[in-house]
Amino acid sequence: MQDEVRVLCEELIMTGAYVARAGLVAGGSGNISVKASLADSGRTAQDMIIITGRGSQLANLSFSDLAITLADGSIGRAELQELSAQPSSELPMHRAVYDARPDVAAIIHTHSPQATAAAACHLTIPAFLDELTFMIGGHIATSEYAPPGSVELGANIVKALGDRQAALIANHGAIAVGSTLSESMKVAVVCEEAARVYAIARGLGGPMSIPESALERQKAGFRRRKGLI
Q: Which residues, at least 6 apart from 39, have a Cβ–Cβ distance to it below 8 Å?
């Protein structure tokens, strides 16, 4: 089991470095988690979450910057002793998403500039690009405001996500989800790029909508790929 945990931690550390290089976080902002499914642990997949620790910097993560949390909220030291951090204060948000979305096994919370600017304006980014439906499943909504780290914030984000892969967090940042860390990372990049292009398009008079028939086909294709229909 420890070997499986170690592999997930190494992947999480590499993801943090990529997210930082891509400019999606700065300093100590943002957090990442992955839901572990370990057959010999005696726990279900939802019962073990590896998450970045409080105050950690995604650009320079080490094993000591990570934490394992269990269903009862305790820290799973036995799984890997090197994981000595206290979990991110945004753990309730991560738990809420995992509980609501069985298809999600990895979450990246970013403070990327364009997406955060849209979140500060409480905008909804419409599905005006093909890539938004292919990668995210439709539009990107902004959640209702709630304090960072609160249970209310998690509930609001679950509502804003719906069955899609990304949402904006009001006055705060963005969240990208997926079945793997790699998928979540791609979604985070698409979310930031979509916010950037949307800002430019608004300055040019506003983006044109994708024809409704094409949009519905794309959404249906996304839902089939995700096993939602």
A: none
Would you say the pTM of this structure is higher than 0.85?
Answer: yes
Question: What is the pLDDT averaged over residues 184-204?
Answer: 97
Give me the helices (H) in 101-228, please: 113-120, 130-131, 151-161, 181-203, 212-225
pLDDT at 5 over 90: no
For tokens 């990107």, the residue is 140
Q: Closest Cα partner for 169 from 16, 29, 26, 18? A: 29
Give the chain's end-to-end CA distance (angstroms, integer): 33
pLDDT digits (tens, 9 = 90+) for 49-58: 999 999 899 9
Q: What is the CA radius of gyration of the chain?
A: 17
What are residue 107's DSSP bridge partners? Answer: 33, 177
Rounded to whole angstroms, the Cα distance separating 226 from 229 reads 8
